[in-house]
């Protein structure tokens, strides 16, 4: 990058399409043979235009030896323009006409070349001058031409020192065709043609008068020199030569030099016309300049810093070979080399395809540039460094207030969009609606069970285009949905799709509420979702009417409603009741087989109050019907805009059904225990199997066959055992899921009852729980399990639970360990502080729900046997701590040892710590976190506003 | 000569800054809005400010959206190159931008425009296309002498929007001593004379460049004299037509065509942008008519050039302001150079660290 620039003298734009010109398109000469010898620029384009451009009229008036910088760049004077009708490949000037010393113009077209005379007829004023371009002779070419060169071929000027003779020299023309033939023309006469040896592609061609030789660069990147005499001599002297000659003697180059790169531009031949002893030939490639002397000696070679696009060499003073090289890098620069030394550099306004020197009258050394679009530019080197730097943009008065407002707006947008936590979007871009169509139900088979399936339509309405829409539906177990997660893609407008709801297994669903989530990306790619909660699945898909009214049941719940008694059949008009529609009660049969009876009291019914009873053997089933009944009542009376009040009857401020609830917990914990037991059993069996396999293998490997000693029978037996155990496990799994659902339902019912009973008055609730617990304490087998703090992982509960409990449980543990008492260790003497127990239980549960529950998952045999399928909930958890008691199980042990260990497993199950872990686990798994937190909050008297969920 | 016509003529020949909005509106009937693009950022001088770019058949107009008085008017004539380059825009970051180099008498300018609408970069194709259409229609607007593209085989090479009004033979061009016999083609756009003996000796003079047409006495007798405007080289061309009645008839024809032309000039820039938006002709007209925002309080203190905003667009140094420096031959380089300032040599200028 140079600080200097090329200054413009004048320029002219020919305005042609790019690539209309090449380095051969320009010749600089006094072409009209004017007496003032002003050099003109002759430009021929591929579009067939021949232009002769002279300096602007104003330039001619410059005084002798003094050229001044024009105040403004001048426009060149278009002296003549002619359309030759055929692309101009090359223009050249020389004495091409016999008997004339005038300079004429040779123009090479693809299939001909012509020699023209340019004549100026001067007028009174400048624009009155006219130029005539006259064709003197032309040669049709039989082969398509590539380039040409001219010179006094064969008239070795070295032999004649007489300058007057030299001025009388005649210039001949040699045309190189695309197929590598050199055709020689002596003015109007074609002389001969010659093939170049080893020709593939044509390269630049030059004639060196002092050597009387031709130079070309072959396609193998060799610079080759051919003597004119040898070109002449190699011809057959048999017949008259024509252009179509196809025979020729083997022609050998005088010398050859490998330059190893593709040449650019033309070959520059430098010699002093008065002294032919020193001849230099400069060859340029993309990255090098080579200079050759006589006999093909490399005089110097210059490796260039920049790739060059065109170059021009000339002699300056005594044998100083100067080279101008133009580079297209960095938007154009020109470098001036003296030999191999960089002497100057300047910026160029454009990247030229051709550059050469021009004589500006007396002043030598102007530079002509030609751009690919035909801009002819004559300039000189500026010596004033251009230190110009564009001034900084004036800062306008900043509107700080507006910027502040914009900033806050942008921050708001960023805050809204940039948050990683996706929150339910508040804008109503996407609306979701779920429609159940009662008619569209059918009986289907699910897991060997005939169940009712209901078709629901999910309707999505997008007000703007949203992308990557995904719909997820959460259903309570065991209700399933045929398309739980659907990828819809990009939508705008309405989109509907149908899905089926049906029961998957016989378990009792704890709830009928579904949730639908629609996730999407908005236009800017920010994720959003909308959720639709509280979609109630109709009751009839899990229950069917039972013809007979069941009057007996274990659990009963009686409650009063501040409304007149309803006709139950009309309330449940979506069921097909075969019997009396005025019946006082209805019995529903769930697919689990549980029956629930809803009774309306015929007694004490008044216009302002009525009593109902829900009874069943299962609390979960009761909950479904109870909840559904309340929903139906609410719906009905909400229409009448009156509030529904429910009071429990006959429980005297107690929380009812607590006993039944505890037995549900017992049932579930038994299932859990059974599961662990089966797993232990399985691991034992698997170890046994492996041991047998190992021994069998040893037998088989033995070189001397030995009897198997009944080991194969043992192997079959243990395999059967394992299969049995796995079957057992599967059965247990199903049962466990059922009990999970039942417990969930029961817990929900309990919470609702607590809500109804306690209302929002926490002191009342405390009282009721206390009285209930009192009653339970009096019962023989109170199933309250006090969590036992022991594990290192659980330090918090330790702080919460009183020391006496710790001591008591410690003694209980030692006792149970000794006596192998059942798991649910009863509290021996519940003397005081039951409230604290419940409180601490609640706390523990709360904490447990916050912390991941440690789970014993490490089955030592898992590498041998396919591991039993873990529960979905369990697989989600990462096993953190394995209770130490389980770790005690030896991994590698013999069968007998294993058998022995099986017995000791019992101890571990009875251990309080394990029990605690198990209890936490099931509490977690049935997802009671929130309700229990609420429960404990009630107990502790936390303000009700914080816990009001329902 | 009506004043407003003189006013219009700089449109495509000049680069002006911060004009009053009425100079931005095409009120000369020959200038037509080809497209209005919005928002476009003037990345060079007003980086970070959206505005609109109006492309007419003669020039590019950029006007800031916020401050209508900040604007540019770039005639197509001074533009030397239009390329697409990567530029850093405040509003779009690193992006492809339209890079325009222009040169007036004394200065070189550089302009960068960035289209702020992401969808389609019509900006590039449109501006380049209109500029090409402008460059290829120079015969409509510039005097051309000795051209090869004017007359061929005694027939006028017609331009697209050109119609021959009259062809007159026997017209003597009086630029040389004995005169040259030739013919006139009078069209709705220009007057063309060519020599009967040499078709390459011709002159194409658009009415746009003609400042006066009169009949004057000369040494050849009564002659038709066509004077061209300063932008057209201030030529005085004399023609003799015999007999006198024919001369008067030609003079009358030329005068009436010249007058009509001044009313409805033909600039010859023909460009049909492909319409992408579904928009009726009426909507388009409305959009174009409201393209230039009006300034509310126009204070006409300096109507021609009222700003120094051009400084931001300079591509290199300001011209030397007419200061003439001698050009000398440097034997050291073998080339013509600007004479170094006193006390400097080429070597001392070139070698930052002098080699001793």
UniProtKB/TrEMBL annotation, chain A:
GO terms for cellular component: BBSome; membrane. Signal peptide: none annotated. Residues 658-756 form the PTHB1 hairpin domain. One of its GO terms (biological process) is cilium assembly. Residues 812-837, 853-887 are annotated as: Disordered. It comes from the Eukaryota. Residues 550-647 form the PTHB1 platform domain. Residues 1-385 form the PTHB1 N-terminal domain. Residues 453-532 form the PTHB1 GAE domain. This is Protein PTHB1.
Automatic annotation (TrEMBL), chain B:
Keywords: Cell membrane, Cell projection, Cilium, Cytoplasm, Cytoskeleton, Membrane. GO terms for cellular component: BBSome; ciliary basal body. One of its GO terms (biological process) is cilium assembly. GO terms for molecular function: phosphatidylinositol-3-phosphate binding. It holds the Pfam family BBL5. Residues 31-85, 162-216 form the BBSome complex member BBS5 PH domain. Its main location: membrane. It comes from the Eukaryota. It is found in: Cell projection, Cilium membrane; Cytoplasm, Cytoskeleton, Microtubule organizing center, Centrosome, Centriolar satellite. InterPro entries: BBL5 (IPR006606), BBS5/fem-3 (IPR030804), BBS5_PH (IPR014003). Belongs to the BBS5 family. This is BBSome complex member BBS5 PH domain-containing protein. It comes from Allacma fusca.
